[in-house]
Amino acid sequence: MHGLVNRSIEYFARQTHGDAVWTAAATAAGVDPRGVELMCEQDDSTARRLLHEIAALVGCSPPELAGDIGAWVAQRSAIRRLLRFAGRDFASFVTTLDELRGRARLVLRDLELPAISVAPLPRGWKLTPACDEVWLHALAGVLHAMADDYGVLAVIEIRGDAILVDVPVVDFNEGRPFSISDPSVGAA
Q1: According to the lineage, what is the superkingdom (predicted)?
Q2: How do residues 111-141 score in pLDDT, each as one tens digit?
């Protein structure tokens, strides 16, 4: 697994729950509490151990924590801009998620995101990512954050190995401002 994934877990833990939670979780997971090496390939089990330890400390399950991390990552300015390039509305964003893996490789060649299959439903989509439960919940968190970002009311449900996205109201709220040409528009 790319170090960027574990670094994201670290930054989420530090910014959301504080340095003490990060230090305790990292120590218990056998990770250097001073921080995760960003550009090194790391064993997949490292992320699982970190999620398990942080979740235990904050009182939630690892999948719930992964969902929170997915939502948090999607709102980081640089990641949000990359995600918003996928489309001018939520429908465009979701229907191009099958291209996310390739787009991520344009930014970081060795970042392995799961392939995502997108199928239309009457009021939304069924997403079937080729991944485990943790990635599934992280993707659901990203979808929640991006629906809010676009101002769409979306009901996002994990059912088995798929994510169902139901959009009962497209113009639910005003979306956050965004401009491709001006990175400061909509910056948090």
Answers
A1: Bacteria
A2: 788 999 999 999 999 999 999 899 999 999 9
